[in-house]
Amino acid sequence: MSSLPNETIIRPSSGPKTFDLRELMQYRDLLLLLIRRDFVARYKQTILGPLWAILQPVMTAIVFTVVFGKVAKIPTDEAPPFLFYLSGMLFWQLFAGSVSAAGNSLQANATLFTKVYFPRIIPSLATLASQLIPFSIQFGIFTGFYIWYLLMSDVAQLHALRLIWLPVLLLLVFTLALGISLTYSALTAKYRDLNHALGFLIQLGLYVTPVIYPVSQVSENWRWLVWLNPMAAPITTCKWIFLDAGALPLIPLLSSMAFAIILLPLSMRFFHRIQRTFVDTV
Fold first, then answer.
1. 11 part of a folded domain
2. Residue of 63, 87, 205, 96 lying closest to 139 (CA atoms)
3. Could you tell me the residue range of the domain that residue 152 belongs to?
4. What is the Cα–Cα distance from 96 to 77, expressed in whole angstroms?
């Protein structure tokens, strides 16, 4: 039986593929719609709404200041403990929130996939992009505390030229989050029990990443283990930019960039390979 004149047959492409940028542009309206949906759904039927984006990092920084700064007395490279922890949480929460939300994009949108065609990477992109909204709010709060610190301190100073690293860090963290979340979502599509490990892994990652401690407190013999974590360099760099804590970790930062550049196309190919048949087996 021949196909109807206006019938369009959609088949999964074969061979290695990352994504079609032109096709993504055709579905940009859907991308924007899903970004809005993810942000609204996160704070829908909550008492404080988007204020949670402010309270969570501030309260976390206060707890860290008391527990690790006052009780455990972990040094912060002469930086104010509250700002030290708050700056460390900036990019970590962007990364952790993006991976947590986007890591389940295939399963979360399985019913939608069976009804209409669109590039399967769009929900992951939308989830990551929606994380930029609370990140912007948190960055604004940090900026307010930071300006107050500059005004109240006699020795603190703003290193304006270092601010050019911020877009680099944002792009690096976003790329790392996208690559890892695509890989994880593809894996959880085949192995459902990995969903239970995600929260534990992110919680463990908080403590193996130099968020609550400076890299200078790690023995030089073991410091290379810290730099194996691709998130260690951007978080340490953020503290260096604003608080002059430690030194610019240039080599680890370049290594993180290289890792992100290699990871992203590999994760996209793996994601594409899994999503071709995911709807048939869900």
1. no
2. 87
3. 21-281
4. 25
Tokens encoding 225: 């283990």
Find the largest Cα–Cα distance for the chain.
Answer: 83
User: What is the model's pTM?
Assistant: 0.85
Residue 229 forms part of a structural domain: yes
Residue whose token pair is 């999964």: 12
3-state SS assignment for residue 187: helix
Question: Tens-digit pLDDT profile for the chain (282 aa)?
Answer: 455 556 555 555 554 455 667 777 888 888 888 888 877 777 776 666 677 778 888 888 899 999 998 888 898 988 899 999 999 999 999 999 888 877 777 777 777 777 777 787 888 888 888 888 889 989 999 999 999 999 988 777 888 899 999 999 999 999 999 999 888 888 877 777 677 788 888 888 888 999 999 998 888 888 999 999 999 999 999 999 999 888 899 999 999 999 999 999 999 888 888 777 676 655
